[in-house]
Write a structure and sequence with these properties.
Layout: H1 9-23, E1 32-40, E2 47-51, H2 57-62, E3 66-75
Length: 76
């Protein structure tokens, strides 16, 4: 009999995860912070500039110190 989508390692992992959730276990949720990425004159490649709660990307851009800014959610 051929294996269907409800058999095999993926189904076993899904069933294990469901049982774990029903028991209230599972991986603890990781803390998340907003990270600011962009380019600077010293390093024109996109790189991590700092945490959003520690610097203001609008102010950073307006000053001309950085450009191409993006804010992304990162786990810490």
């Amino acid at each position: 009999m051929p294996k269907g989508y409800a058999e095999g390692p993926a189904a076993e992992e899904a069933e294990r995860r469901l049982e774990e959730l029903e028991r209230g276990g599972g991986e603890p949720r990781r803390a998340e912070r907003l990270a600011v990425y962009g380019s600077t004159e010293d390093d024109p490649e996109r790189h991590f500039l700092g945490w959003r709660d520690e610097l203001d990307p609008d102010e950073l851009f307006a000053s001309g110190k950085a450009w191409g800014l993006t804010v992304v959610r990162a786990t810490v």
